[in-house]
Amino acid sequence: MNLTKRLLSSIRVANSLYSTQLTRPNSLKNQVITYSFPNLHGKLFFSTNPEQTIHRILSEKWSDKLEQELLNSKFDFNHETVMYVMKKLSKDPQKASDFFNWIVNKQGFQPSSAIYSLMLRVYANKDSIKWFWITVHKMKEEGFFVDDQAYMLILRDFKNLNMMHEALIFTKFYNAMVKDNAGSDVIKEIVGVVIESDWGNGVEERLKQMNFGFRLSENFVLRVLKNLRKYPLKALGFFRWVSKDFNFEHNTVTYNGILRILGQEDSIQEFWNVFDEMKSNGYEMDLDTYLKITRFFQKRKMLKEAVELYEPMKDAGYAPDNITYSQLIFGLCKARRLEEALEVIDVMEQNGCIPDIKTWTILIQGHCGANDLDKACILLANMIEKGCEADGDLLDVFINAFLGHNKTIGAFIMLTDMVKSCGVKPWQATYKNLIQELLLDRKFDESLELLRLMKKHGYPPFLEPFVRYVSKYGTVDDALVLLKASSFKESPAVSAYQRMLKSLFEEGRESEAKDMLFRCPPHDEVGDIRLPNIRNKYSTILDDFMNQIRLWFTLMGVLSYDT
């Protein structure tokens, strides 16, 4: 029997064991959330045109021949598609740079702040740092700005690469840029007027008196919107007003700019209205905007919106990456639309996007949360069969699911099999959680086996629940086996014996404490105390209560005896 079949057989047995054991209250609370989403069935396939272009660029060396092939492809290189291609090329700085220079310098493409910010992220490494600073200065000369998220990601990359000098200089540039952007007299005045009053004729009249129409450009509008990002409805008012009173024609850049601001709880209806308007005018949301907004939706638990936004991006021909797919699966699972979540996995593979462990974990957790452990186990076996290795996070999901249904033995079988068959190292917290639940169900032997596995994985011994259990319900043999299993040395430490004896006394089990003391094996000297001396000195005084108290104080370190 191969690994997958053996594992699947084992976890099915684990799932079936103790399925009716309900001796303790169910600790797993499942809150079912119902949403109304657009139907995804049968509509999960992407246009291959953008992917063909990206494949061509990645598979060929940059040359005049490749440039001509790109021209002959009749591919529409607009803001959205350039952003998409750049995003997909971001892990290959040289190819991304070749494409960017060709599309800008030879094809006359006008990059936006968002595209420039993306290029900075591509160049933020030791090999491309020269091009990074060239792009920074070009952005400054042309009045573009770095968006907040790009700045944070670039700063993180610099720190991870130990490029602290570059991080310091870039921070100074960014702070100066923010100050310049907010400090422009005209922009500062516009923002002040818009913020201080509700939108209406009074605001519009005051704006007209500023006579800034000759300055209007997509970058100027974006700078105003950026400074109004905390006031989404007022930002929308300005967006509408410049179009109405100045006949400013919004394009894909300004539409994407306002959508990034409107994608919040308080302005979600306005977000969809502008989104539909943008589509009707022939523009599309770019991939960078989509990723930023969907991640915000997920962070704010706006799952309905995240799933709805996926549809038009798919129709536009943009193949999501693992992060985007994972977000979609997360939303579908939370809405209990598990069959559609499974379809997304199939589509990922059809489009050459291999699900990673995080994506599988989200899908499996969704089935566990919906009380479908059988399907979750099958998915785990399928995942392993496809070459994706399980990890501690995924195992923790399963253990919590089993424990949520009071299947402690099933959880035990699951964990031990995943360790032995798949080499998974459980989290320390997973071990602790399962050990405590097993001891509550009086499963001492199974708990002890987990303690031994913990020791093999290098975790410190988790003795508290064992000591409590043995002192209440266990035998002296249990106590001695526990002490041996918990020790990293050949013999347990004297402090471990003291701890167990103390706990037995606290439970009023003086007879067991006396028996344990006489059965303690010989020890080497540990500090100033030898266990044989403890045993010999106290063997004659354990017959009466006062001498038991004396032993208690000695073991607590209050009294001492010369060896």
Automatic annotation (TrEMBL):
Keywords: Repeat
Pfam family, one: PPR
GO biological process: RNA splicing
Start-end of each PPR repeat: 251-285, 286-320, 321-355, 356-390, 427-461
InterPro entries: BIR6-like, PPR_rpt, TPR-like_helical_dom_sf
Keyword check for Transferase: no
Keyword Repeat: yes
Gene3D superfamilies, sorted: Tetratricopeptide repeat domain
Superkingdom: Eukaryota
NCBIfam families: PPR (TIGR00756)
Name used for this protein in its record: Pentacotripeptide-repeat region of PRORP domain-containing protein
Taxonomic lineage: Eukaryota, Viridiplantae, Streptophyta, Embryophyta, Tracheophyta
